[in-house]
Amino acid sequence: xxxxxxxxxxxxxxxxxxxxxxxxxxxxxxxxxxxxxxxxxxxxxxxxxxxxxxxxxxxxxxxxxxxxxxxxxxxxxxxxxxxxxxxxxxxxxxxxxxxxxxxxxxxxxxxxxxxxxxxxxxxxxxxxxxxxxxxxxxxxxxxxxxxxxxxxxxxxxxxxxxxxxxxxxxxxxxxxxxxxxxxxxxxxxxxxxxxxxxxxxxxxxxxxxx
Length: 210
Hints:
The chain is an alpha+beta fold.
């Protein structure tokens, strides 16, 4: 079992402000190639950021970076490389390590160099919002070393409507408890907070709606 608790707004806000500053500088660097719109998602968009008191991984933020390349001038790999290189030019000046290139996201981490403890981290998903309401993301296929556009799973669809329904019907506190319980019982290290939160919202919505 883990020991997740919620991060206070007072602790989270300066980190979020710093990340937004990093994103703005990255936007300036990549502008000759394409533009993108950032959006906080998952727990960081709902003041439900957590950290595990039993671990050294700190707390994490999630941002979607919606790429504007409608003429498809750049391949998925080129977009990912341009973004990774731009983030690597900016983030280390704020004390972050260089990007980690995982399957779904680019991740930066701020680490205490004396204790090797991760203070906090941020996952950046490079996405495209389709006209039909679905969303694609650039996936790194590590086995063959290529990049592809993939659709987000159905579990990420219509979350805003479900969140609004849960809040309107006063289930928000119950959802917060449910989410913490799911994080504390999660034994899959590859399952990120955003996925666990989406599962929590969908399961709570189905349970209460029916």
